[in-house]
């Protein structure tokens, strides 16, 4: 089975009553690599993970994980996957150790082996001191680490990390990235979903961009960034009526199609050196009033503007609202 | 190991998980112990003096204790509703579903945990009952049969509340269902007052109410009195409720999981 990909989907579809969450997605993740599935809320990321982790049946297409079909071989597949979600699904009223031991028992590792794994993983995830405390007393970052540890209890060949850092403060996020790099990513096959380009950039070998249930780009981080066009100059105008004038003034230094949203203009630039001074001079000559101006790295929005021509839709709340509603409406099978 | 012994071991792991949290959640512990004691004392000393019972019972305490124990057993499983709703909302059910465990063990283990907590409540209430003047008049065998009946009956309601937990979107709505649907039914029965004192229509309902069947059976096993076929009917009701609700709960489990969490 060495040659077959660890995760392979063909024409994967999922439709709810009136919305299609996935519209024919082809994914391929080679063994030992990390794929970042990048997209905004409601893009279909969570639906894809839920299908691959056997929690949700697909409406069409096929999906195989570690060579097993997610529908026909679901029961056997479950012993070969680990899932860590955006909810840090651990029991608040058990200790860290008890949580991991329970998961081990439910993977049918047996009592002795489950305890041994729990001790090992608490040590590895820097939770050894907190292992005897109930999870209720843990910080957000500690819970996520425990959740990751739980996914690794049975050393499964394929891991799904569904938005592992969503909801964490920036410091805990960086801490968790380090943990994933040091203890999770090495040699494991991982499918990681995220809304953040920098997260995918840092953790994933390849990135697949998903929007409205369609896969719209796939490649390494560098390949994607080339499409986006590197660094961008972002300016906020005093008067949104001057957007066209501003774009015209900056055409000569632009390295791709500029984007605009209300009074904000975003222009990909060729060279960082002198770009700001140059831009200010050109805008001043054109009589454009600028409120704010900065250079920044490409973001998910830029990827979206470049790839889809529209701004990524951000919704509030922890969950993709559209998906929640669709799932609620789904009839039993 | 065979799949059956895996199922048993998974159920046990989940039951242990649910039991471990009790001492860590003092409000739960209160529900099993203090609350039943409070009910016994309230009914005996506040309402007791005003309620006339048939002359075959020594006093209201003998009439009341089986009633209040029956009601507590019916509500013992309420923790199952709350904890399943909680597990769904926190995504724990997602984790369980992604594991190679026996899926229905998640609910079965939860209900098994109720059996133990129900036994604790039962013991507490019997002791408090004896202190306030209750006494068993029937032979030990019948008393123990009554205990068995209460455990079966309580277990049946664990499955009722498992279903309630899976169809409820929040602990609050599970709570509302428990207290608007089931709580009144326990009162419109022979649990606390003899149905003969009720208006005709309500008396008719109290007479056919299965809660009456069960509590009458328990009284006949513990303090004597006319039982008729009530004992076997009471066991039949318990088993019937358990089978029906275990079936619809198993069906609902998959759907509830699809509909929420994650």
General description of the model:
The complex is a heterodimer of chains A (333) and B (262). Chain A has 333 residues and is an alpha/beta fold. Chain A has 12 helices and 14 strands. Chain A folds into 2 domains: 7-221, P-loop containing nucleotide triphosphate hydrolases (Rossmann fold, 3-Layer(aba) Sandwich), CATH 3.40.50.300; 231-296, Alpha-Beta Plaits. Chain A has helices at residues 45-52, 74-77, 96-106, 111-124, 140-152, 170-184, 197-203, 221-228, 243-250, 275-285, 300-308, 321-329, and strands spanning 7-15, 20-29, 34-38, 60-65, 68-69, 81-84, 158-162, 189-194, 206-211, 214-219, 232-237, 259-261, 264-268, 290-296. Chain A has a 6-stranded mixed sheet, sandwiched between helices. In chain A, strands 2-1-4-5 form a 4-stranded antiparallel sheet. Chain A is elongated, with a radius of gyration of 22 Å. Mean pLDDT of chain A is 85; it is low at 314-333. With 262 residues, chain B is an all-alpha fold. Chain B has one domain. Chain B is built from 12 helices and no strands. The A-B interface holds A 46, 50, 53-56, 75-76, 78-79, 81-83, 85, 87-94, 98, 102-103, 105-108, 134, 150, 162, 327-328, 330, 332-333 and B 1, 6, 9-10, 13, 17, 20-21, 24-25, 90-92, 94-101, 251, 254-255, 257-262.
Tell me the series of helices and strands of chain B, N- to C-terminal: HHHHHHHHHHHH
Specify the overall morphology of chain A: elongated
Number of strands of chain B: 0
Tell me the distance between the termini of chain A: 32 Å
CATH-derived topology of the largest domain in chain A = Rossmann fold
- Per DSSP E runs of 2 or more residues, the count of β-strands of chain A stands at 14
The tally of domains of chain A stands at 2
Q: Tally the helices of chain B.
A: 12
CATH superfamily of the largest domain in chain A: P-loop containing nucleotide triphosphate hydrolases
**Rg of chain A, Cα atoms, Å:** 22 Å
Total of helices of chain A: 12
Whole-number radius of gyration of chain B?
19 Å
Protein chains sharing the most extensive interface: A-B, 37 and 30 residues
Shape of chain B: elongated
Question: What's the CATH architecture name of the largest domain in chain A?
Answer: 3-Layer(aba) Sandwich
The poorly predicted ranges of chain A are 314-333
What is the helix/strand order of chain A?
A: EEEHEEHEHHHEHEHEEHEHEEHEHH
Q: Please, what is the average pLDDT of chain B? A: 88
Mean pLDDT of chain A: 85
